[in-house]
Specification:
- This protein is mainly alpha-helical.
- It has a single domain, classed as Winged helix-like DNA-binding domain superfamily/Winged helix DNA-binding domain (Arc Repressor Mutant, subunit A), CATH 1.10.10.
- The chain is 40% helix and 8% strand.
- The protein contains 5 helices and 4 strands, in the order αβααβαββα.
- The strands form 2 sheets. It has a two-stranded parallel ribbon with strand order 1-2. A two-stranded antiparallel ribbon has the order 3-4.
- α2 crosses α3.
- The longest helix has 10 residues.
- The protein starts with a helix and ends in a 5-residue tail after the last helix.
- The model has no long low-confidence stretch (mean pLDDT 95).
Length: 101
């Protein structure tokens, strides 16, 4: 695991159950605001899921984005936490969006 991946996973643990964070938001949390694509890559390689909840990371427009497993697993995990998803997009995105700043 790289230091960057480790930073991503550590920061992501701060996102509470029932909330989501964007790839860009997670990049900003670790002090690398332009590294949102690298954050996506780190989430794809997350060996600690679901303890490190990569299912909580979504696109800036509320769309779910990718998932290493079947996308239905991401949807199921989010819904189990109370995050509503419709048409692969977070419902009430602004309400459940975690803002670390």
């Amino acid at each position: 695991m790289t230091e960057f991946q480790s930073q991503c996973y550590k920061a992501l643990k701060k996102v509470p159950r029932g909330m989501v964070i964007t790839y860009a938001g997670l990049a900003a949390m670790i002090g690398r605001p332009r590294a949102h694509r690298a954050v996506g890559s780190a989430m794809n390689k997350n060996p600690f899921a679901p303890e490190v909840p990569c299912h909580r990371v979504v696109k800036s427009n509320g769309e779910l984005g990718g998932f290493a497993d079947d996308i239905s697993v991401k949807i199921k995990r989010l819904q189990e936490e109370g995050v509503l998803v419709c048409d692969n997009k977070v419902v009430d995105f602004k309400k459940v969006r975690f803002n670390a700043i």
